[in-house]
Amino acid sequence: MGLLRLLVLAVLASEPGVAGGAETVGNASEGVLEFSIGKFRYFELNRPEDAILRHISSNVSFVIFQIHSQYQNTTVSFSHTLLPNTSGTGTDKGLVSILRPEESMCTWYLETLDSKPVQNMAIPLSYSERDPVPGGCNLEFDLDIDPNIYLEYNFFDTTIKFAPANLGYARGTDPLPCDIGTGRDSRWRLLYDVYQYFLPENDLTQEGLLEHLQRMAEVPQVKANAIKVVTLTANDKTSVSFSSLRGQGVIYNVIVRDPLLNTSAAYVPAHTYACSFEAKEDNCSSLGRVSTKVFFTLFALLGLFICFFGHRFWKTELFFIGFIFMGFFFYILITRLTLIKYDVRLILTAVTGSVGGILLVAAWWRFGILTFCMLCVGLVLGFLISSVTFFTPLGNLKVFHDDGVFWVTFSCIAVLIPVVFMGCLRILNILTCGFIGSYSVVLAFDSYLYTSLSYITLNVLKRALNVDFHRAFTNVPFQTNDFIILAVWGMLAVSGITLQIRRERGRPFFPPHPYKLWKRERERRVTNILDPSYHIPPLKERLYGRLTQIKEFFQKEQPAGERTPLLL
Predict the structure, then answer these.
(1) How far apart are CA 459 and CA 452, in angstroms?
(2) DSSP H or E run through 89
(3) What is the DSSP string of 458-486?
(4) What pLDDT was estimated at residue 9?
(5) Which residues cross the membrane (predicted)?
(6) What is the pTM of this model?
(7) What are the residues whose beta carbons fall under 8 Å from the beta carbon of 116, sequence distance 6 or more?
(8) 185 Cβ partners below 8 Å, 6+ apart?
(9) Rounded to an integer, what distance in angstroms lies between the CA atom of residue 153 and that of residue 245?
(10) What is each CA distance from 327 to 69, 121, 436, in whole angstroms?
């Protein structure tokens, strides 16, 4: 019966109408889909179908058949009977078909359990006996030979896992043992290059994803288009973590290389947006919360004012700096210690940040310690500069995956800034106003439109909140939106700094101590009776007078005329 079924499939597949080009499109209406080696095919799957690959060359040792969709699951199996070790279900799945001698045709079974039709793209890729077999030494997952990349994500990081590969072998021969010997003649000589590819920003379309997946399926295209993040040896754990980029499409793939034979093979690429398309709230299409937009819009308005007028309005700037200081540390504390919802946390952070701003202003008003206030100002600028430093490829160095090394280095850079500028405090203050105030506008942009520049500080916040984030690579895309917003950030910063330096030329560096001024003014009023302010009643009497005026305003007007009795 199995032979008869293959003959029927071959006859059906030989009918005209099945295109064979670089890309073919079909809806699987004939009940069978015919594929060609290395040719992508688009089709809509709404019921079980058979896929067939014919005319396989004799020098092909194994074939990897892979199928992709955006977010709806598809099942691919060797037979109609779905078993864990012979089938896989997901959005990016593939199977390895080891060919027998004289075998020139492969078949697979495709189906979906989704109620809606699924738009898929599939391709079979062939490899010779010299090429390593992706997933050939699988001991962790269900398939006997598993070429798939398994992907997990949360708010903080995205982790990919894959099974180790094995050396290639000819048709009709047994595969080499996976765990016998670790010499140059075993799988332990293989190397794994992990690649990352970013989709265009704000592109959530299905067509865009399937088009870009074509650049990540075969070895030459992967090397030409993607970014190599890390190379793993056979002794390393086959698991890599990345920073999650919510709403940003990312495709991952792994190329296994045999350095002795100079051959390679690609795993089945996997993609993620670090969000759900089917969630009712906070899905990929509506990531920005209203509370986030309100918070960062108000924060940006204050920051824009500080960018251009911060040094002149010294107390307002101190409130801004105190808000950042207290709000940042309070958000970390409340997130790590409680399970309060995000919106409530944001409200509490705003309240606590405001209290921190008021306290810093009050400390300046009462004590007037300029060094302390400028230390806070310098540390905020140092925090941003340190965050920018680790936002560069420097942050992905292996040495900084250690939390101790990272936080010590980060703190040293942050503290170095106020120390360097301690001799020119006005310049330090104006620089802080320009850079910090303008960066608040960047954060507001991110609430409405994705930009990678927000991850300058968000990656530091993630590392402070999540104990496992130190393992993650923090690569981000840098595309058109980012260049535009970077130009806006730079323009605002330079304009604000230049304006404040020119306006403050010839003026006192900082305002005098407010408490001393108030005390001196009060003593002057007490001793100088010619000063009109000397005759101003005390505050208590003035308040009482105001209340009396308000009370009289609401009293009913008395009628005019004689009201006293006549004297007899």
Answers:
(1) 11
(2) strand 87-90
(3) HHHHHHHH-TTGGGEE------HHHHHHH
(4) 41
(5) 294-311, 318-340, 346-365, 372-392, 404-421, 428-450, 483-501
(6) 0.85
(7) 46, 72
(8) none
(9) 10
(10) 42, 47, 15
